Amino acid sequence: MFDLDRWDEIFETIRKNKLRTFLTGLSVASGIFILVILLGIGEGMRNGIAREFEQDAANLMLVYPGMTSKEYKGLNPGRRIQFKNEDYDQILRLYGDKLDKSASLYQQWGQVLTYGKESGSYQVYGSFPSYQVLENNTLTTGRFINIPDLDNSEKNMVIGQRIKLDLFKDEDPIGKYVQVSGVNFKIVGVYTDPGGEREESRAIVPITTAQKAFGGGNDIARMYLTLKPEDDFDKSVAASTQFTAELDQFLKERHTVAPDDNSAIYVNNSLENAKRFFTLMDMIKLFFWGVGVCTIIAGVVGVSNIMLIIVKERTREIGVRKALGAQPLSIIGMVLHESIFVTAIAGFLGLIFSLALLEFVGPMIETQYIYNPTVNFTVAINTVFILVIAGALAGFFPAWRAARIKPIVALRDE
């Protein structure tokens, strides 16, 4: 029920103590402001990490060889592992029903690509059509390598945007030929990559062509694998972790590597990495919540102290009210009303200012690990509940003290 007299009392108290009320409200507003900004930064960090993982397929597993570090079955340590086409083919036969996308890769570093008078040193990769999806390449013109290119060992090439700019300038490269190690390759497509110029300084050719043209035999440098998607992220991580262990065991047995030798074969699981990063982000976000809540608590303590002073100043008035029959609950309600009003107004101002700052400044923040810091509606609603609870807590103890004042003692108060 709306009580006009009660509101008159609240505003009269605020008018009499403008500076005190302002400083009290400022502490609460600052607490809410800091909390929302910190949560926004936490969400921005999460967005930044997610964007880093979007550079490749979301559930990509990258398998590449290393060097043995332990003696095993009569074989000395220091033995370099070399993957072959047969390794990749056997993985497809054993785990094909679990895999979504896959590709093996043969690579050549520092190959000189020449077109007319222009030339440059770039990486040349031999791979499969699925490499485009696995590396998140986007075609700007032409097409990617396809199955007929593989089957016929066609000398077709897809180049990154950086190579196109270096060798062809403003000229359309589609249908033109570049020379690599004395072999002419026809440009059939140009791609861009979220990873930037480093990823766009690569030329992609069919793996069958690369192995023949560069004397690679049946060697491969690494393998790309993705699993079929699960219902949710946690299930995907669990399935991916289990598959990683099975794949690691299979490859170690195939290449006669000790089961506990962790330097011979590497399986880089992007989902596991993402899980670790997101767990770290959740911990940071929890820490930010803690800092923000502690700041609000400091403001609430300030409000509570102010309300204690107000109760002390109004001791005689409270005594008169109780002498005239005022119930303890009405005294508690009077103090709580004022406390909640001050904290709510100050908190809402801090909330609105912080949300406005994130809305206008947030989109302009774009670093490697912070991207588009925002706070969603649910968090905003949670802060509203925090405001109400904070106001109630700030006023409860002063209100309880006021309710316990005996009329005779209050009337004698000077």
Please tell me about this protein's structure.
There is one protein chain. The protein is an alpha+beta fold and 414 residues long. The chain has two domains: 4-52 and 276-412, no CATH class; 60-270, no CATH class. Helices cover 55% and strands 19% of the residues. It is built from 13 helices and twelve strands. Strands 3-4-9-6-8-7 form a six-stranded mixed β-barrel. A two-stranded antiparallel sheet has the order 2-10. A hairpin with a 2-residue loop joins strand 7 (177-180) and strand 8. Helix 9 (270-313) packs across helix 11 (328-361). The longest helix has 44 residues, at 270-313. The mean pLDDT is 81.
Q: Largest sheet, if any?
A: 6 strands, mixed, barrel
For the largest sheet, list the strands in their spatial order. 3-4-9-6-8-7
List the total number of helices. 13
The shape is elongated
Fold topology:
Elements: H1 4-16, H2 18-53, E1 60-65, E2 83-84, H3 85-95, E3 99-115, E4 118-127, H4 131-134, E5 138-142, H5 147-151, E6 156-160, H6 161-168, E7 177-180, E8 183-192, E9 202-206, H7 207-213, E10 219-220, E11 222-227, H8 233-254, E12 265-269, H9 270-313, H10 315-323, H11 328-361, H12 377-403, H13 407-412
Parallel strand pairs: 4-9, 6-8
Antiparallel strand pairs: 1-11, 1-12, 2-10, 3-4, 3-7, 3-11, 5-8, 6-9, 7-8
Helix pairs in contact: 2-9, 2-11, 9-11, 9-12, 11-12
